[in-house]
From TrEMBL:
It comes from the Bacteria. SUPFAM superfamilies: PIN domain-like (SSF88723). This is Putative nucleic acid-binding protein. Signal peptide: none annotated. Residues 6-117 form the PIN domain.
Length: 139
């Protein structure tokens, strides 16, 4: 099991919920969040973003969960998380991802797990951003 604390980007949570392959890295990460298999952090803003995205009508059609079921899923995710207050951070490559950069700034040992190519390529993060497959292989 990995001891490195991570932040799990919304795209990984969504992909984990939508995949039909339980052995895929994103499914394993979502399952790991739900079972507390690894240490992860989130902020109230990130949890709210998870919910905002998961309750979108187009996504609800794909994952088939009701709003009540989504809220139960998010309660389980929050239960196992370290909840942190964000810290001031340099601008993110995409302004919509600023909440992730601020959460990374809260603790220097955190890594961001994401499938977002723009974030993965950001040279200013110095190895703090990793792909789901790389993280899933570590736990």
């Amino acid at each position: 099991m990995s001891r490195q604390a991570v932040i799990v980007d919304t795209n990984v949570v969504v992909a984990g919920l939508l995949t039909g392959n339980a052995a895929s890295p994103v499914a394993r990460i979502l399952d790991g969040m739900l079972t507390g298999a690894f240490t992860y952090a989130l902020s109230e803003a990130l949890l709210a973003e998870y919910r905002t995205v998961l309750v979108r009508p187009q996504l609800c059609k794909l994952h088939g969960l009701s709003v009540t079921e989504i809220d139960a899923l998010l309660t389980d995710i929050a239960f196992n998380a370290i909840v942190l207050a964000p810290a001031p951070a340099r601008p993110a490559p995409d302004p919509g991802d600023q909440l992730l950069w601020e959460l990374l700034a809260a603790r220097p040992e955190l890594l961001l797990v994401t499938g977002d190519k723009l974030l993965l390529r950001d040279p200013g993060m110095g190895g703090r951003v990793i792909e789901p497959a790389a993280f899933a292989a570590a736990f």
